[in-house]
What does this fold into?
Amino acid sequence: MPEQLLFAMEVTLNGLMAGVLYALVALGFVLIFKASGIFNYAQGVMALFAALTLVGIMEGQIPFAHIINAIFGTELHHFGWHVPALLAIILTAGVMVLFAWLVQRYIFQHLVNQEPIILFMATIGLAYFLEGVGDLMWGSDIKKLDVGLPQGINDWIDVTTLEALGYGFFIDNLDISATVVAVFLVAALIIFSQYTKQGRALRAVADDHQAALSVGISLNFIWVLVWSIAGFVALVAGIMWGAKSGVQFSLSLIALKALPVLMLGGFTSIPGAIVGGLIIGVGEKLFEFAIGPLVGGATENWFAYVLALLFLVFRPQGLFGEKIIERV
Amino acid sequence: MLDGSKTETLLEVNNIEVIYNHVILVLKGVSLKVSKGGITALLGGNGAGKSTTLKAVSNLLHSERGEVTKGSIVYRNKSIAGLDPADMVKQGVIQVMEGRHCFEHLTVEENLMTGAYTRSDGRGAVSADLEKVYAYFPRLKERRTSQAGYTSGGEQQMVAIGRAMMAKPETILLDEPSMGLAPQLVEEIFGIVKELNEQEGVSFLLAEQNTNVALRFAHYGYILESGRVVMDGPAAELRENPDVKEFYLGMSDDGRKSFRDVRSYRRRKRWLS
It folds into this structure.
């Protein structure tokens, strides 16, 4: 096989794996938007906050150390212990559930029946607030996140493809684990929403708030539930991105990368978020590979947005956007 | 079958006033009673306050920025103030909303199952009740795997009533079941309501514009006008009342006539609450 074609295949594979990460972020958006009609601008910051909390717990950092030190004149920074990764992940998930409850109790419970734009503004406020809180709690320096996922190039794939095709594929181990985790996460989410009582209630709420209330489904509970799930998805996304490029404040900007994914896949579709993520991931890598050299590179920065614009013009509901059922 | 003095009163609404958005006064003192095992009809035209009364009872009012500002609602001798809709469902009061409100993207069967959300008496009991609902609505069994949004209006009304039955209710607040349905379907739906009432012992509080049908199936009726009860009585008596005949059934001593000709409406009205 010609070298060029093999290289394109490798680029595609890498694009697929980058797409999985985009999809993870987009998934959090879809969950909340579907169930409550809130476009959660804070999803990216939630990923950042979850990653910061995870690192903080693992390294035994004292939360709000700066404030405590400033008030009491102490020099505290660490508890002096290290928490194993798995336990830290569980604790962080607990923190995200608590966060979900606080958001519902103190923000959105007071905004029931408000215009979507007001809810959106509230999430913008929430995003900046949460960013500030993350900074205060855990400090603003760039942190390394290592939960024990394998890193670096996968030798086995490299060697096998080299022997079979005469060309070694460079695939990052981290990308492979991200893919596996994402597949499990999505499968779990689909099973939950299709086959459990709470999942059914969640879809019912997404369809018709009033009717859901009338059969005795508590909207508050369902919304805390979705925000918790979105928080957990944010945690997973935060772990993957954090392990890849360090936990820093630019992590919250991955939310912007999720926007074109949503426009492609549709705001209300879980499979849409996945497929949209993959298309964007592969699309931008291949585009860069094929067209990039002709236009001087850096196409990855804008390719996704142009694609999203095209979709907005020709298929505004996205690939998998919910069909609006209308009977006449 | 029903005699107000002998049967137990389930629900008592005492002189309630309802205000939407802090300014719009919708109910101006409505009182009514629903007795156990009966079908009580709440009649009146558009904007009379029928739906609002039902929502005040089911406590769905809060989610529409409405508020009961005066009076009290008592179910089984306990005030329902401060309960949320889920509590009401657990107590056995469930509302079937106007316009059916099915979950469009859920299948018919999933819709029915959401009705059992608050129940905790086990899967066996729930699936037995699902079969029972299918027995009352055989058409729903045929369409159990279709998305509810793609079923017909009559089927959607059946889904909505069946969904409420899945909560094992004692009282169903049924809002405008005839809306947008062909006369034959209206008869069918009311027939099933009557069966549910007689065979399952479910009490109904029924808001309906179609006075004719409602008074044929109900035991007792209240007539609402601009947020007030203007008349009440056993359904059979209301049917014979000359004013009801003229204003709500379009009949008078000289036979059927058009509502356009009822010029003396305001002048002749002398009902007061």
Summary: Chain A touches chain B at residues 112-113, 197, 200-201, 203-204, 206-219, 322, 325, 327 (CB under 8 Å). The radius of gyration of chain A is 21 Å. The mean pLDDT of chain A is 88. Residues 36-253 of chain A form one domain.
